[in-house]
Q: What sequence folds into this?
């Protein structure tokens, strides 16, 4: 007979959450990390002044966002130039990132209907990198396959021509620049969630406590209270 599932009452859960201590400094750093990572320089400057958060040079944000914007516009040559102007070592020490930028450049040529130029670029620039690093071959072949379709946008791999592909490449470049500046991206997706409710709902500390404590308990098989509606931040009894 299978053992019954452990049930944690709301009172027990709240006691555990109250035992978790989160420093205001850590919360400020988390918010600042999001602002810097996403390029909100003016807000970051105001937040640093108000919170006293000691952080990286905010002057670097503008240059990094210029690179990110160039990729999102599809201007890959300009993005590569800006990255190299910022720090030559970023692309020299990250062959995968450089390949993905060149891959994006190939995608932009295909998007613009420059078929012959795209074929030449793939042959001269990307094929040699595929030979040097076989792990790139699959992505290269998939991208070149766009040329086999009359309407590439409607083909099975048409998502490569979508905005999401540009955003993916831009995000990779953004993360690489941040890393080169000694600033890790961290749990940025979680930070986006927390930032959205940071000043709107004073229950954020409880949400953070739940996050930290529950992450340490993921392996436990138990029925425990949850906050199903983050806008209210109310603990609901476990479903048994």
A:
């Amino acid at each position: 007979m299978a053992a019954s599932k452990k049930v944690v009452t709301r009172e027990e859960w709240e006691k555990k959450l109250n035992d978790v201590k989160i420093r205001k400094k850590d919360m400020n750093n988390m918010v600042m990390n999001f602002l810097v990572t996403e390029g909100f320089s003016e807000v970051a400057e105001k937040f640093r002044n108000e919170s006293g958060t000691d952080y990286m040079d905010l002057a670097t944000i503008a240059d990094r966002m210029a690179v990110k914007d160039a990729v999102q516009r599809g201007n890959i040559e300009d993005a590569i130039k800006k990255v190299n102007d910022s720090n030559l070592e970023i692309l020299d020490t990250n062959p995968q990132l450089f390949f993905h930028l060149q891959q994006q450049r190939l995608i932009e040529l295909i998007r613009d209907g420059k078929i012959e130029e795209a074929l030449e670029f793939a042959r001269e620039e990307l094929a040699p990198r595929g030979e040097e690093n076989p792990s790139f071959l699959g992505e290269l072949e998939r991208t070149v396959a766009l040329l086999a379709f009359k309407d590439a946008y409607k083909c099975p791999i048409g998502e490569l021509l979508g905005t999401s592909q540009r955003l993916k490449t831009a995000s990779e470049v953004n993360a690489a620049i941040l890393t080169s500046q000694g600033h890790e991206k961290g749990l940025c997706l979680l930070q986006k969630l927390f930032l959205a409710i940071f000043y709107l709902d004073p229950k954020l500390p409880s949400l953070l406590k739940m996050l930290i404590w529950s992450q340490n308990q993921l392996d436990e098989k138990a029925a425990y209270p949850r906050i199903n509606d983050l806008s209210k931040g109310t603990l609901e009894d476990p479903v048994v």
User: Anything to note?
Assistant: The CA atoms of residues 9 and 15 lie 10 Å apart. DSSP finds twelve helices and two strands in the chain. Confidence is low (pLDDT under 50) at residues 185-204. Strands lie at 6-7, 222-223.
